[in-house]
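Progress note, project year one: complex with adenosine-5'-triphosphate.
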Amino acid sequence: MEANYILVRFGELTTKGKNRKLFTRKLLKNTQEILSDFKKLKYDLQYDRMYILLNGENHLDVNEKLKTVFGIHSFSNAFKFEKDLNVVKDAIVQLVNEDNKTTFKINTKRSDKSFPGKSQDINREIAGHLFHHANRQLKVDVHHPEMLITVEIRHDAIYVMTDVIKGAGGYPVGIGGKALLMLSGGIDSPVAGYLTLKRGVDIECIHFAAPPYTNEFAREKMLDLVDQLRHYTHGKITVHIVNFTKLQLAVYDHCDESYAMTVMRRMMYRIGEKVALKNHCLALVNGESIGQVASQTLNSMQVINEVIKLPVLRPVLCLDKLEIIDIANKINTYDISIRPHEDCCTIFTPKAPATKPKSYKAEAFEATFDYESLVDECVDTVETIVIDNQYKNNELIF
Ligand code: ATP
Ligand code: MG
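Model obtained:
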């Protein structure tokens, strides 16, 4: 039997009191966007759950996409029946006959209290029917059943479910405002973006490119990462690409090599803050992790962070590289991140960057050139593109 509904549970949302309408509406909107390829689906948003009417779409294909929607706690493929227990009993026999497992449990929930019979009695009645009519010998196991068959008697209908699939958890994207993700081509920043989205914070991305030192493959790699992250949003992500070459060369001309990295990152933060404010982003996000490289010691972070006021979120700050890689694999960004294309930072990496930089020294180097107009030029010449489900078909992007 092909499921005709998917029942979606919200989980964490239930704790959000009067904001709940906002949450569930956002979740509905995001889900509709993520599932937009399935044209026949219909949605029914209720107080404590959402039903997706499959209308002939394949439930397994829809399941895969649904697993990426933040704010969904779990979901089940469901079969909707008229409110007649005999119809339901026969259908359950048919469902069980299609399976080959032995132990089962019937779990009836009667939210329509006017429906005759107690839940326990209905459980027993359905189990008895199964013993008599199933095509093989079955056993009840109330603790660890191989088949947990849930029967929900609601006001509109009876729903039968045979599975509970774990959702992505978190909050619906966008409910927590928007932040600007500093996205390199590396492993860490896409993971930082994913974790931010999971908390319901939408993202735009900023990428620093240094043409002609960085090429179109580096750009494609970064955009492919965005295309992957897009699956966890409402389907699209805006990317701001900064031409960083002139400013980066100026930094290397005017700073001692040991300070070039510190000053360059101060410039990235300055540009990031300006682009964020222009685009209503409330924070910067990056993939910094304590101690990973010279610019990520607490000393460095302090000297780099002090040039801006906007909060900087660092979701992978306290994770080990292996933990970050685990998440990158789970979200399918790892294989893209390890493609061997140069990033603007890798090309200009100084040999011995200061791990304990001093603010006054960074300021002294910066005082030797008019970096402010170069920063403004970067902001004014930003190239902005939107990555959506047309990305892979859209050859004009490159
Ligand atoms: P990643 O694996 O994400 O590249 P990393 O360990 O290589 O991180 P760095 O190169 O020092 O670390 O960069 C730290 C963070 O700064 C990155 O995670 C990213 O958020 C940001 N960043 C670095 N380079 C760029 C870039 N070219 N464009 C945008 N953001 C960048
Ligand atoms: Mg990097």
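The pocket of magnesium ion (ligand 2) is lined by residues 184, 186, 343, 345 (CB under 6 Å).
The chain has a mean pLDDT of 92.
No further modelling is planned for this target in the current period.
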